[in-house]
Automatic annotation (TrEMBL):
One Pfam family in the UniProt entry: SLC12
UniProt protein name: Solute carrier family 12 member 6
Signal peptide start and end residues: none
Swiss-Prot/TrEMBL catalytic activity: K(+)(in) + chloride(in) = K(+)(out) + chloride(out)
Membrane-spanning segments: 73-93, 105-130, 151-183, 203-222, 229-252, 375-400, 421-447, 467-485, 521-539, 545-567, 579-603
Principal location listed in the UniProt entry: membrane
InterPro entries: AA-permease/SLC12A_dom (IPR004841), KCL_cotranspt (IPR000076), SLC12_C (IPR018491), SLC12A_fam (IPR004842)
GO molecular function: potassium:chloride symporter activity
SLC12A transporter C-terminal domain mapped to chain residues: 674-785, 807-1043
Length: 1043
């Protein structure tokens, strides 16, 4: 039967051998079936926070144990966690103080601006979070994959520091509640001077102990933290409900404890321990007279009198302000119906040390400096609108909680936007309504009393709560503990995720942890940084620090969304459609404004930290390609710039060498002349375009892997030499054609190379294969045809490396013909580099017999002056002279060798022997000419001399070569050789000790038959010089005297 029919035994169910897709079976390993791809995507699982990034997840998906599918919805998975993270310590401890200090109007403004900032950020975050599957990792993952590793690392570390400092802030809040409102007697240090130092020291001691306990709990197990989260959230909700209930109850009448005033000054409860807000009190006591005995009134002084006077006696001298002022009392909660909101509408900013005063009460008209400050309620810090913004902003952070839990959500792309935005709307409504309720219910001086000193040391917001202040005290204490635990749990995982991305090398150690993946080292670092926040000890000083870091993070979330939207990248297709780049831009501007409003110096510090991390990642971090928006932005900017460059050729003032460096690789894919790249880096100094290219012999279909290896070799060398540029590797059957194609096709638009740098073909005379020098000459011709400049360093191995410095010496320029000014520009560019910086510059030009050398020198000096180039000038006179015997002999030997190699196909051994013969005779003639210098200049070629040389050479020459010695040298070759010899004599005489010699490179002959002679001319021209740079201009002016 037919082999293609009924052969079911030979066909299995493997994807690679599907009978319906046999046409594609050879490519199934790189292009899988659609069904295979879809099944793999269906089995994709989100990652838990702190696990490896999603790129690695697909590779290990087969090994992963089947886990329970995420089941959390919008309410439990996003809404409630966001509520718990947003509501925090500021609501209970500082919001009343913010309202009292800023007034209701400005407090509403502060809350509205901060909530608008987080709402706009949430819209941007929702767009990013719904643009594809977002593994857990929250803002760091979104920013790094949207803006690249540099921005991602910088903002990720800022977000980490913000989360860590928020842990410190929550711990300080918990300790403040504990020591101020729950157990004041637990204080270790006691304030004797009234400067508040004892309170700070107590915060430091208890805060450090508390941090140790919470860190230990996190280390033992996160599962306990997650179980306690719901309890902490319940505490927050109950506390907020009790505030609203208390506000409603206050509408039926004033309540709360009495606040005591001395004149218009608010007294602390410490001023009257007996609870009497009066100077004296009358007591019915037994009065004994001479005749009768009975009850009568007796005036006694109060504790308040004793504190302001020098004794309890009625005639004791008292404080001047105390003596002229009366005491009054007022309810701390006048109630909704009292109209107190009219008094609380406007701001009342205070300086540090000022006494809280009630504006509606008159004060004595006499000067009264404040004494006995500890008896009054005083401002502990200087307040302003900007300070309050910085302190309040942490109370609206925490909007990332939903995106951090994306791995637990049933439908993250639906739940994250809805849950986050609803949570922000809820919290914003609570904050705004609380501001109005606080202003409408609570006495103004009580609102401004940060620590509740005027209400017997009770929590101010607790006095409003119903049925008991302890609901708020206990609830706020546990909620701050829970928020601190959440921060200490989330921050190490965020650091671990950054460390595992391996974009910041020095953080690599923090990617490791316990066997179950818990970040032990990251937790240790987090605890140490949090301890720094606790040592600051003031909630009001720590809050602005973490505000900066969170604002920086939110700013870049908005930037990421705006960039992606404006670039319209093909992959930008968010499911959440209610976003616009203008909203993201507005959010970004609000974040930036809030940073500088709250604390301009903290803002600068945060930006400097982020900038330093950015540059560190850029220079030392691992390269990552995440398809980020900044790369897209760079592409758009590059496209725009290239299109602008296409408008016309560059002006002479803007001309700089855009290099194409041609390197040759050996059989092991090693660069033969790496010093060429060193020279290129010294010439460029990091500016302009550099393309490093090589040509590989072979077929593109078979040598693609070799090309990739060669490209990697070039990249490694460029990194080693610190050359910024691009690699290009071309595969061609003939290297000559490959170089021609590279020169024609390199670059894009206006960014094309205008200068080619290539090495001198080393030992070209002894080379078995003439292709090396033929390729060299062909490249010279191609560059000339393409109107490109050409630089050929000879003896490149002797050029200095980047670590060497030429401390003295000169760069000599031999300006023989004008080539557009390349010879003037190159030394100037080289001297910008540290290697050549200290070298002087000398310019030589050649004068013929008919030239006025004195005038030439003056004109050249004037020309250099206008070019703003400092150099010594010298004009070398070359008198006419007869062609020397050495020149004639050198030309004859050159032509004999060329004729011999061209007409005869020598075997390898014969060619080596002949090459050696020519070399020996060449050396002998050179020595002879040096010994008799006068003959070299004056002796002309005669018939007798020719017979003599022929006789000498005939004795030592093999039989087959004797006919070649009868060749008469071509007259044009003799003239060219004469020029090369004479110029070489002059150059060696003047520049034998120069660090570098630059001279014009003559062009190759139009007739290709004389190519080998051309190589000989160049050899003679540069003989005896250590470092030579042959320069050939591109035909356009590259330097100008005009500004």
């Amino acid at each position: 039967s037919n082999v293609y029919i009924n052969n079911s035994h030979s066909v299995d169910d493997d994807d690679f051998y599907d009978r319906n897709l046999a046409l594609f079976e050879e490519e199934m390993d790189t292009r899988p079936k659609v069904s295979s791809l879809l099944s793999r995507l269906a089995n994709y699982t989100n990652l838990t926070q702190g696990a490896k990034e999603h790129e690695e997840a697909e590779n290990i998906g087969e090994k992963r144990k089947p886990s329970k599918a995420p089941q959390m919805g919008t309410f439990m998975g996003v809404y409630l966690p966001c509520l718990q993270n947003i509501f925090g310590v500021i609501l209970f401890l500082r919001l009343t103080w913010v309202v009292g200090t800023a007034g209701v109007l400005q407090a509403v403004c502060i809350v509205f601006v901060c909530c608008s900032c987080t709402m706009l950020t949430a819209i941007s975050m929702s767009a990013i979070a719904t643009n594809g599957v977002v593994p857990a990792g929250g803002s760091y993952f979104m920013i790094s994959r949207s803006l690249g590793p540099e921005f991602g690392g910088a903002v990720g570390l800022c977000f980490y520091l913000g989360t860590t400092f928020s842990g410190a802030m929550y711990i300080l809040g918990a300790i403040e509640i504990l020591l101020t409102y729950i157990t004041p007697s637990a204080a270790i240090f006691h304030d004797e001077d009234g400067d508040g130092a004892a309170r700070l020291n107590n915060m430091r001691v208890y805060g450090s102990i508390f941090l140790l306990l919470l860190s230990t709990l996190v280390f033992v197990g996160v599962k306990y933290v997650n179980k306690l989260a719901s309890i902490f959230l319940a505490c927050v909700i109950v506390s907020i409900l009790s505030i609203y209930t208390g506000a409603l109850v206050s509408a039926f009448g004033p309540r709360g404890s009495n606040v005591c005033f001395l004149g218009n000054r608010t007294l602390s409860a410490h001023a009257f321990p007996d609870g009497r807000c009066a100077k004296k009190w009358v007591q019915d006591s037994l009065v004994l007279n001479d005749t009768t005995m009975g009850l009568g009134p007796t005036e006694n002084t109060t504790d308040l009198w004793a504190n302001f006077c020098k004794g309890p006696e009625l005639d004791a001298p008292c404080d001047d302000f105390f003596a002229h002022s009366n005491t009054t009392t007022n309810f701390s909660i006048p109630g909704l119906a009292s109209g107190v909101i009219a008094d609380n509408m406007w701001s009342s900013y205070l300086s540090k040390g000022e006494v809280l005063e009630k504006p509606s009460v008159s004060s004595p008209g006499i000067p009264h400096p404040v004494t006995n400050q500890h008896l009054y309620v005083i401002a502990d810090i200087t307040t302003s609108f900007t300070v309050l913004v910085g302190i309040f902003f942490p109370s609206v952070t925490g909007i990332m909680a939903g995106s951090n839990r994306s791995g637990d959500l049933k439908d993250a792309q639906r739940s994250i936007p809805i849950g986050t935005i609803l949570a922000i709307l809820t919290t914003s409504l609570v904050y705004l309504s609380s501001v109005v309720l606080f202003g409408a219910c609570i006495e103004g001086v009580v609102l401004r009393d940060k620590f509740g000193e005027s209400v017997q040391g009770h929590l101010v917001v607790g006095t409003l709560a119903w049925p008991s202040p302890w609901i708020i005290v206990i609830g706020s204490f546990f909620s701050t503990c829970g928020a601190g635990l959440q921060s200490l749990t989330g921050a190490p995982r965020l650091l671990q995720a950054i460390a595992k991305d391996n974009i910041i090398p020095f953080l690599r150690v923090f990617g490791h942890g316990k066997a179950n993946g818990e970040p032990t080292w990251a937790l240790l670092l987090t605890a140490l940084i949090a301890e720094l926040g606790i040592l600051i000890a003031s909630l009001d000083l720590v809050a602005p620090i973490l505000s900066m870091f969170f604002l920086m993070c939110y700013l870049f979330v908005n930037l990421a969304c705006a960039v992606q939207t404006l670039l319209r990248t093909p992959n930008w297709r968010p499911r959440f459609s209610y976003y616009h780049w203008t909203l993201s831009f507005l959010g970004m501007m609000i974040c930036l404004a809030l940073m500088f409003i709250s604390s301009w110096y903290y803002a600068i510090v945060a930006m400097v930290i982020a900038g330093m991390i950015y540059k560190y990642i850029e220079y030392h971090g691992a390269e990552k390609e995440w398809g980020d928006g900044i790369r897209g932005l760079s592409l758009s900017a590059a496209r725009y710039a290239l299109l602008r460059l296409e408008e016309g050729p560059p002006h002479t003032k803007n001309w700089r060498p855009q290099l194409l460096v041609l390197l040759k690789l050996d059989e092991d894919a090693h660069v033969k002349s790496p010093h060429l790249l060193t020279f290129a880096s010294q010439l460029k100094a990091g500016k302009g375009l550099t393309i490093v290219g090589t040509v590989i012999s072979g077929n593109f279909l078979h040598c693609y892997g070799d090309a990739l290896a060669a490209e990697q070799t070039l990249k490694n060398l460029m990194e080693q030499e610190r050359v910024k540029g691009f690699c290009q590797c071309i595969i061609s059957q003939k290297p000559r054609e490959g170089i021609s194609h590279m020169i024609q096709s390199s670059g894009l638009g206006g960014m094309r190379p205008n200068t080619v740098v290539m090495g001198w073909p080393h030992a070209w005379r002894q080379s078995e294969d003439p292709q090396s020098w033929k390729t060299f000459i062909n490249t010279v011709r191609v560059t000339t045809a393409g109107r490109l400049a050409l630089l050929v360093p000879k003896n490149i191995s002797l050029f200095p490396t980047n670590s060497e410095c030429c401390t003295e010496g000169t760069i000599d320029v031999w300006w023989i013909v004008h080539d557009g000014g390349m010879l003037m520009l190159l030394p100037f560019l080289l001297r910008q580099h540290k290697v050549w910086k200290k070298c002087g510059m000398r310019i030589f030009t050649v004068a013929q017999m008919e030239d006025n050398s004195i005038q030439m020198k003056k004109d050249l000096a004037t020309f250099l002056y206008h070019l703003r180039i400092e150099a010594e000038v010298e004009v070398v006179e070359m008198h006419d002279s007869d062609i020397s015997a050495y020149t004639y002999e050198r030309t004859l030997m050159m032509e004999q060798r060329s004729q011999m190699l061209r007409q005869m196909r020598l075997s390898k051994s014969d060619r080596e022997r002949e090459a050696q013969l020519v070399k020996d005779r060449n050396s002998m003639l050179r020595l002879t000419s040096i010994a008799s210098e006068h003959r070299r200049v004056h002796m002309t070629w005669t018939k007798e001399r020719a017979l003599q040389v022929q006789a000498q050479s005939g004795c030592n020459t093999p039989e087959g070569f004797r006919d070649m010695l009868n060749i008469r040298p071509d007259h044009s070759n003799v003239r060219r050789m004469h020029t090369a010899v004479r110029l070489n004599e002059v150059i060696v005489n003047k520049s034998h000790d120069a660090r570098l010699v630059l001279l014009n490179m003559p062009g190759p002959p139009r007739n290709t038959d004389g190519d080998e002679n051309y190589m000989e001319f160049l050899e003679v021209l540069t003989e005896g010089l250590e470092r030579v740079l042959l320069v050939r201009g591109g035909g356009s002016e590259v330097i100008t005297i005009y500004s």
